[in-house]
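User: Show me a protein chain along with its predicted structure.
Assistant: Here is one chain, sequence first, then structure tokens.
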Amino acid sequence: MTYEIPQKLQYEEKIIFGLTFRQLVYVPFFIIPALMIYLKSHLPFLMRIALSALLAAIGILFMFFNLLGYLKNLVSWMRFREARMTDQKMKEFLGLKKVEKQVLYVERK
């Protein structure tokens, strides 16, 4: 029995603690400062907990919920949201040759 293997198969190697390299890159930027604030800071106790929990939560969002991808999509949406049908960017995006009397002429590919 044969079957096809999908070409767009994405696999990332688990390095340590079941985390990929991309996930481990975020640890020094969020989790370590959160621990430093909690353990070494001279702030009041509730302030330390709030700041470290906020940093840890942002780090977890980046690590496990692909927050970077969502932010990239948001930025591209913000740039493209004011596009009109007659704009050059929209014509390139849709592959339009011309727009005439509410008819769209599309380039063949």
